[in-house]
Amino acid sequence: MELTASDVWTVVAAALVLFMTPGLALFYSGMTRAKSALNMMMMSVISMGLVGVCWVLWGYSMSGGDALIHDIVGSPFNDFGLSATLADGGTNLLSVAFSSTFAIIAVAIISGSIADRARFGAWCIFVPLWLTLVYCPLAFMVWGGGLFGEEGFIGSMFGEAIDFAGGLVIHINAGVAGLILALGFISGIASGWAVGLKYRFGYDDSLDVVGVHLVSGLIGTLALGFIATPATGTAGLFYGGGLGLLVTQTVATLISMAYCAVVTLLIVLPIHRTMGFRVSEKQEIQGIDLAQHAETAYAMSSGTSGAFAKN
């Protein structure tokens, strides 16, 4: 296969997006307590492995192609294990790789809302379930020709929704999931202001996933209804496009938030009721690294690794 300039840039762009996840691991771990840094890094690292495998097996297939549920999600059997992609000569492998990096970072972002307190095993169960039941359907609805696409039910009624860089699929999606995991409430219109709302409303969002990603995603997605230029395909209000795109973006945002909230809750509750999503208060105080990994990121004193902390 001969690579074009566009192909080369796709490779570079995929690498840059993929680098975000180890970068996020370092960023998140640096914002947590020293005795929780290792677990925080591992939540991002394991997300890369789990999402990467699930994306190749069924995630990519579910985010596009023929629908399993009309307008909602693609069939995992369209291209299970990339069988159809490989049979076609692998011409879409770059698309598979590029799209996987967005799925990985979307999941990793959520971990910041439960820093210092989430069981690593519970997180490992949550990741493939959330990818399959939340991320893939929303990716299909927005980017795969589903509900919000030109021929989808909402898209044909209000117009096609625009999402250039994951405002709907990644940031709002991850932000709402983080809010559900934090078990709280959010309001606000700007990230800087919204970060402080967790103290007012009492939801436990450790690293401000809700305030940063959800609120920024909301602003960016809705702003397209005002500032999108005709070159994007649909002009916003400020460029003579009327209210059509703004209505589309608003409807897509509300439906995406509702879907993500409900399905994430349905995933989290059984995990929490069975194996527990949160470590004990004693383990949280002692440090989740020893409790979950029998290891620490920093050796503050002798005998601080090699054995699991007791409950």
From TrEMBL:
GO terms for molecular function: ammonium channel activity. The chain crosses the membrane at residues 6-28, 40-58, 93-115, 122-144, 164-197, 209-231, 251-272. It is found in: Membrane. Keywords: Ammonia transport, Membrane, Transmembrane, Transmembrane helix, Transport. Residues 8-183 form the Ammonium transporter AmtB-like domain. GO terms for cellular component: plasma membrane. The keyword Disulfide bond does not apply. It comes from the Bacteria. InterPro entries: Ammonium/urea_transptr (IPR029020), Ammonium_transpt (IPR001905), NH4_transpt_AmtB-like_dom (IPR024041). Coiled coil: none annotated. It is a multi-pass membrane protein. The keyword Transmembrane applies. Belongs to the ammonia transporter channel (TC 1.A.11.2) family. This is Ammonium transporter. It comes from Candidatus Rothia avicola.
